[in-house]
Amino acid sequence: xxxxxxxxxxxxxxxxxxxxxxxxxxxxxxxxxxxxxxxxxxxxxxxxxxxxxxxxxxxxxxxxxxxxxxxxxxxxxxxxxxxxxxxxxxxxxxxxxxxxxxxxxxxxxxx
Length: 111
Ligand SMILES: [Zn+2]
Ligand SMILES: [Zn+2]
Ligand SMILES: [Zn+2]
Fold this sequence. Notes:
The chain has 111 residues and is α+β, with helices and mostly antiparallel strands. The chain has helices spanning 26-36, 74-80, 96-100, and strands at residues 6-10, 13-14, 21-22, 40-44, 68-69, 87-89, 92-94. It contains three helices and seven strands.
């Protein structure tokens, strides 16, 4: 799924947190810029980025819960997700809740 996200800049520089949060719309980014206070400004990214969702419960990796945490490369995904308790199974990912299990996918009960 190709999505071009928005992120926030500070004094014209991209933020340099470990996990940079992305927003789906400029309005969302602007709203959070207000929360962080000026001089944060929304900036649209150049291209689509990668997101990861759990192959079991479809939970999207989103540590911050205020926006989306996305990745620039699969290498970055492979490095970061295990640190957050995610497990790789071939080329699919399973979230910590589902790793802990047990899950009943038919009843949509996880962990
Ligand atoms: Zn993004
Ligand atoms: Zn899951
Ligand atoms: Zn599950």
